[in-house]
Specification:
Length: 283
Amino acid sequence: MSEVNLNTYAKNTWCPGCGNFAILNAFKSAINELVNEGTPLENFVLVSGIGCHAKIVDYINMNSFYSLHGRVLPPAQAIKLADPKLKIIGFAGDGDAYGEGLEHLIFAAKRNIDITMIIHNNRVYGLTTGQYTPTSPEGFRGRSTPLGTKEMPINPLELMLASGATYLARGTSHGIDLLKRLFKEAILHKGFSLVDVLQVCVTYYNMYEYYDKHVYGLIDHNAGDFNQAMNKIREWDYNSEAPVALGTMYSRQADTFEDKFSAQGSVSTDKDQLITDFLRTAI
Ligand SMILES: Cc1ncc(C[n+]2csc(CCOP(=O)(O)OP(=O)(O)O)c2C)c(N)n1
Ligand code: SF4
Ligand SMILES: [Mg+2]
């Protein structure tokens, strides 16, 4: 296998020990394999939000677009529709994707648009120094909640499954081999895919010990079965001491959003018309 050099000159400013390093390394390794297996490097486009996670696009030498907080999916979907042969990968934080950008996530899953989302779910606002997010557990003590949150977290995979996502997986920043496999699977999946990475923020919410104690890899799980996937996803609610399953939770084939435009004859023949059609359905 020939090594594709994806390094950049940007100085890495993540805290030493941050789980983002595992995501970065696993992702570069997955891209290296995909390129060696025949996908041209220039066919990938990365889109990021705003947060510690988002800096990842500075550290990978690939086509990329640095968007706004909570707004990874609008440009990602526009790029996909403008050129459906491109493989779009969005990087977002839990605050970014499950908070301010949540409605975009639900609608992208509902449309089954062929985009991969990698969520750096550290369950805290890292960049803005430790406020709670939609996946922080009840009682989480952070900068904005010194007495502990009074809200239950959401289970993002449950929400995504209910919204129509066709590929869902969970990994952690302590398992690079699994992450690489899940990233490759998600990118190769045709349709909306999301990998929820339990990425540890060593500075504001260090969960390494907790995850090491609670995680296990899925075996004998039928990822094609909606009910089995829902039960497995609900086993841990991001709040309890229940076991935390890792691996491919759900995967099924279905027509994508862009396939449906193609069937009506608009995809890639008239890009302006395509974007107008998309905006009509999206607004
Ligand atoms: C539209 C908008 N809203 C809010 C902010 C402030 N802001 C920047 S990063 C951030 C939180 C980042 O948390 P998360 O998405 O979980 O990423 P992390 O830093 O944990 O990787 C917030 C609230 C912003 N820059 N823009
Ligand atoms: S604040 Fe947390 S998420 Fe951000 S770089 Fe440091 S350890 Fe990583
Ligand atoms: Mg976060």
